[in-house]
Amino acid sequence: MSTFKRSEDGSISITFTSQEAHVLINLTEQLVELLAEGDGQSHQVDPLLHLVGISNADSLPEDPVLRRLLPNAYADEKSAGEFRRYTEHGLREKKKAHALTIYEALLPQDEEWTGDTPLDKGFLTLTFPSDESLEWLGGLNDLRLALAVRLGIGTEQDRVKNAKNDEDVITTSESLHKKYELMVDSDPMKAVYSVYSWIGWLQQSLLDALTN
Fold it and tell me: Does residue 50 fall inside a structural domain?
C-alpha cells in the first residue's frame, strides 16, 4: 500500500499505482465540480460584495456532501447565516484549491486524457515540498468526508447526538464499519468503503511522515 515518505531536505514523496492515481484524479475532479455548484458568488448582484468575497448564501447547502463540508459555524440560525455570507465562498475556494493540488499533481500531461482513460503508467512517483502537505491533508480529509456521507457514516458529533448513552456511540460506529467489512466483494458499496478506508490510511501516512 502506498505510503508517504519524508526526505532529508523535507520534501514529501509517494509512489501510487496507476489505479490509485486514477481513483484520486476522478474523486478530486468530482469534488471540485461539487464545490462549484450553488456557490452564492455565481449569482452575486452587487459587484462590490463580490469583490470582497461576500456571497448570497445564508443557509446550509441542499447537497448532503456540501452540508458536511460546509457546516454551520453556530447553532443559532441567524448567526450561522450571517457568518456563512462572509465565509462560505472563501471556504469553497480553499477546499477547491486543496483538491486541485492533488488533482494537478496526479494528472497526466496529456491534453487528450479524460477521467475515463486508463493511466498507462504502472506506477507514478510524486515529490512535493513540505509546505504543500497541509493542502494534501485538507484535500484528503474532504474526500474522506464526502465518501463518509455517501456511506452513511456520520461524524462523532452526529453519533453522540443520536445515541442514548456512550455505549450506543461506540456500538453505532463499530456496527457501521462492520457492515461494510462483511459485505461481499461484488457489492459496489464495498468498493466505496475500501476507498474511504484507504484515504484514511493515506492521511495517517502523511501525518506520520511529517511528524517522524
Answer: yes
C-alpha radius of gyration, the chain, whole number: 19
What's the grid cell of residue 55? 456571497
Answer with the residue of higher pLDDT: 45 or 201: 201
**Edge-to-edge strand ranges of the sheet holding 123-128:** 5-6, 12-17, 123-128
Per-residue confidence (pLDDT) for residue 108, from 0 to 100: 76
Cα pseudo-dihedral 39, 42, 43, 45, rounded to 10: 120
Q: Give the pLDDT of residue 112.
A: 54
Mapping DSSP to helix (H, G, I), strand (E, B) and coil, where does residue 13 land? strand
pLDDT at res. 159: 45
Alpha-carbon span 112 to 109, nearest angstrom: 9
Range(s) of the domain holding residue 102:
5-129
pLDDT band at 114 (very low <50, low <70, confident <90, very high): low
Number of domains in the chain: 1
Closest of 6, 3, 12 to residue 212, by C-alpha: 6
151 occurs within a structural domain: no
Asked whether residue 42 is assigned to any structural domain, the reply reads: yes
pLDDT of 90 above 80: yes
